[in-house]
Design brief:
The protein is an alpha/beta fold. It contains 14 helices and 9 strands.
Length: 406
């Protein structure tokens, strides 16, 4: 199944998340635990790892171990994790772990510490590898094995999922598995939302690649902990102000043991934590708590899914929006449609495009159709104003069909 791009989202009127305690913003920290799950010939991989490290311009070494790369990842497990564990348990802020199943299996003490701290351990896939070229059935099997191994190591199955280095099939395959409260392989909103996947409502909690310490290892990126702090503070201040204006949002922050776990980088994160602790109306939940809250407060609702209609169904439903001009709907039905058109503005845009493609004589005939219904929209001598009035009258008729306010 091919899913069209959704450029609409919540539009101009996103829902009030109603965060617990009236919080103005939900700040959610994710710690990616990948150390031990990365590409390594010792793990049966074809080459060494080359992604997200402090080695500039790193490239895979086919058939060879990369000792320096391995040691950088090991730093994350041996030292960085524990530095972050002390920081967050000391601040009494719970984390969501994106745990690569094979990495968790190689880190029993760290897993024990995560569970003792009450942190959520979501799944970050079976291995920390690229999935973009992975055949669908191979990825489906890897998802199943990730769940099996995660459950064996952690003691319970994961309720959240984030692959990261995902394929175009990932979100669909995870949703089809059917056991996840949320999926986070998107970066497209500041609030959770529901996605229809093969008739199943899957909650999506978008993640981030910008409020993320990975920018210490990519260009353009952060050089100092102070730069990281300043970016997080600026993002928080904007979101908090929006929350004060009645439009609360969510702020995700992505962290990695081998990156932010270094002392000079951690200093910026610590400053940010100290900063937000100065606010009383900030919620710092685990990701699963956001999912549970959204499910309770904003259960899935189905709107008009116009983009799923066949051309004949579309034409039949909207044939008389422009009275006596079925051809308008017929032309619109042949245009590209997506979720962005599942609303009054979207359908009106399609129909108006069909109308505007007509000759001036055809447009005048449409105006006559409105007049026949007692809707006087013609302005003599001004074709543009006439057209705008016809389109405005059509919008009123369309609003009644869709049961939406104009």
């Amino acid at each position: 199944m091919i899913y069209p791009r959704n450029m609409r989202g919540y539009g101009q009127n996103p829902p009030d998340p109603q965060w617990p305690g009236g919080a103005k913003v939900a700040v959610q920290f994710v710690l990616n635990y990948e150390e031990g799950g990365e590409n390594c010939v010792l793990h049966g991989d074809a080459a060494s790892e080359a992604f997200l490290s402090d080695i500039p311009g790193a490239a895979p070494w086919p058939g060879q171990r990369h000792w320096n790369m391995e040691s950088i990842y090991e730093y994350g497990a041996r030292a960085g994790f524990w530095r972050l564990h002390r920081l967050f348990t000391g601040a009494d802020i719970p984390l969501t772990i994106y745990g690569v199943a094979s990495a968790l299996a190689r880190s029993p003490e760290q897993v024990e510490a995560m569970l003792s701290a009450g942190w959520e351990i979501a799944s970050h896939g079976l291995k920390w590898v690229e999935h973009k070229d992975m055949p669908e059935e191979e990825e489906r099997a890897a998802i199943a094995e990730a769940i099996r191994l995660h459950t064996e190591v952690v003691g319970e199955r994961p309720r959240g999922w984030y692959t990261g280095r995902c394929s175009v099939n990932t979100v669909r395959l995870v949703a089809e598995e059917g056991g996840f409260d949320y999926v986070s392989d998107t970066y497209d909103d500041d609030l959770p939302y529901w996605l229809d996947v093969a008739g199943r409502n899957q909650l999506i909690i978008p993640y981030t690649l910008e409020a993320n310490d990975m920018r210490f290892a990519t260009a353009p990126g952060y050089i100092t902990g102070e730069q990281f702090f300043q970016y997080l503070k600026d993002a928080f201040d904007v979101l908090y102000a929006e929350g004060q204006d009645g439009a609360a949002r969510m702020m995700s922050i992505g962290l990695h043991c081998r990156l932010i776990g270094r002392p000079g980088k951690l200093a910026g994160l610590k400053r940010f934590i100290d900063y937000i602790r100065g606010f009383n109306d900030v919620w710092c939940p685990r990701r699963i708590e956001i999912a549970e809250h959204w499910q309770a407060v904003h259960p899935p609702l189905r709107g008009p899914e116009v983009h799923t209609l066949s051309a004949d169904e579309f034409t039949q439903r909207f044939a008389e929006v422009f009275p006596g001009a079925r051809w308008v709907a017929e032309r619109a039905a042949k245009m590209e449609m997506g979720p962005a058109h599942d609303c009054l503005a979207g359908v009106h845009s399609l129909l108006c495009r069909g109308f505007r493609s007509a000759s001036e004589t055809e447009q005048q005939a449409v105006g006559a159709g409105f007049e026949a219904l007692g809707l006087y929209v013609i302005v003599a001598g001004d074709p543009q104003t006439t057209r705008r009035n016809i389109e405005a009258a059509a919008r009123q008729r369309l609003a009644a069909i869709l049961d939406e306010k104009t």
